[in-house]
Design goal:
With 45 residues, this protein is α+β, with helices and mostly antiparallel strands. It has two helices and two strands, in the order ββαα.
Length: 45
Amino acid sequence: MRQIIGNRTVELPAGEFAALRDQHRGVLLDVGTGDGKHVLHTARC
């Protein structure tokens, strides 16, 4: 898994992803098939 932080892309180990995921009720995953505007809009709502 890779994580986008600003304009950087970093590897995100499975354990770190699980720890982040456990802090939230749900997960919205952008699989990179578009420009990301819809995902950004949804995340901000």
